[in-house]
Amino acid sequence: DRTIRVWNFNTQAGIFMSQSIITKAEGGHEAAVHAFQSYGSFLFSADRNGTIKVWDLNTGVIAQTIEKAHSEAITQMLMWENYLLTASSDGFIKTWEVVEAPVPNMVLKPEPQFAFSKDMDDGSNMSTKPNQYRRPKTSAIFTMSGTLDHVGNPVLMVAYLSEQCVRLYDLPSFASRGVLTPAPDTRTMSMMLTPEGKGHMMILGDGHGKLRIFGWKQVA
Prior knowledge:
Elements: E1 4-10, E2 15-22, E3 33-39, E4 42-47, E5 52-56, E6 61-66, E7 74-80, E8 83-88, E9 93-103, E10 106-108, E11 114-116, E12 141-148, E13 154-160, E14 166-170, E15 176-180, E16 186-193, E17 200-206, E18 211-214
Antiparallel strand pairs: 1-2, 3-4, 4-5, 5-6, 7-8, 8-9, 9-10, 9-11, 12-13, 13-14, 14-15, 16-17, 17-18
């Protein structure tokens, strides 16, 4: 219904209770909300129209809006260091830098620092005029998540619609680290520390209720 609902836990009653409902009239979204990501005292939300909104959690009011951050729906967001990463059904992953000293209307820099598509014809990645990029030939990005490899380096996991694998990319270079396969119809991803405490296992859930667990193999 395009709203953002805030809930508080009532310790006496032992239940969550609605505190507020943020609609378009309060600066909320005009399309279905698809993703959230928190960062310090701010909350980022993203919608089906490709819009990003930034909320000040101390005051509960809108702090910034970036219209058409993507040309299609934003499907997932995550934080890496001081960057917000957004994935979209337009086939792009974009990185947005959090300004060093956030002020009203300027928490994120309004243009992405980096835009990545696995199908850029010339293999390059652009950082300006994001809405003028040619639509990638690939299908939409359904979800993405971060993990660490066996030596602690950050890696991005990306699942595209209609692909039977999950793609892995180094951060911040976006250099390919290969694929996890088979991984058809991946809908959600997570990570957990290995029992030995060396790196993370990657857990994938698909649309048929199956979980697949992958680990890093050390190469001598």
